[in-house]
Amino acid sequence: MTMNEERIRRSLRAELDTVYPNEGLRERLDARLRGRRRTRPTNLVLALATAAVLVTVAALAVSIKPHATEQTPAADPYATVPTPPDVKIIKPSPSLPHRVAALSGTWEGLWDERLPSRLTVERIGSSSAQVIYAYGVSGVIQAPGWRRLPAQVSPSGTISWDNSSQGANSSGRCSPGATRCHMHWTFSISTNLASIEGRRVVSTDVGNYINLVTMHRAGAGTSAPASLRGWIVGLLAIVGAAILVGAGVLIGRRGSRGDRGASVT
Length: 265
Fold this sequence. Notes:
The protein folds into two domains: 5-70 and 229-255; 98-217, Lipocalin, CATH 2.40.128.20. Helix content is 39%, strand content 28%. The chain contains four helices and eight strands, in the order αααββββββββα. It has an eight-stranded antiparallel β-barrel with strand order 1-2-3-4-5-6-7-8. A hairpin with a 5-residue loop joins strand 6 and strand 7. Helix 2 (23-63) runs antiparallel to helix 4 (224-264).
């Protein structure tokens, strides 16, 4: 300790003796100040530990799936779409372009967000395919139906076909009152191969129009909630671990400071 520090210390001690001449009172004040300094870091550590526990509990709550009886099953939008009893999907040839082979399987979607439909690609080659198109009920279409038909295939991953009808249109698949109807269908696979975009161009003797649909693989949506739940649990676990590590580091620093303070005095 230098002479200047010694002088400052003596000056402060003299002022303390003047303000608080009672030695017992000075000791109690000093003890109270030391207690406050020790309490503050302790409270902070307790707050961090409590936060870590709460985050851990939240992660456990998210990871636990609700009991099946507590869930209200959502209505199946494709319940009215018929399924032929003899559907058979043949595995595509390995020599097919990837985008073409990815069309194989069953796809589901709602035309114009209303009419439920299902497209099953049973067999597919480089230039042709065999598909089953099925539709349910919605709006003017009150009778479900399905058809197995041949289709054309393009190298870019598009399936298409045409069909026409004459006479009164009782099925409602064209405009009401139309006596002549021609429909051109196309289904193109997306860049990530996860969906197909459908387009139906309808030409009738009473007017023309276009219908659109986005189809996804049948049953593909059931795995999304579990994946999202996994991400949430992982994130909460990381946050909880970070809080615990921070609390440990804080305790270590406070302890080392206390040791250095004790050695100086």
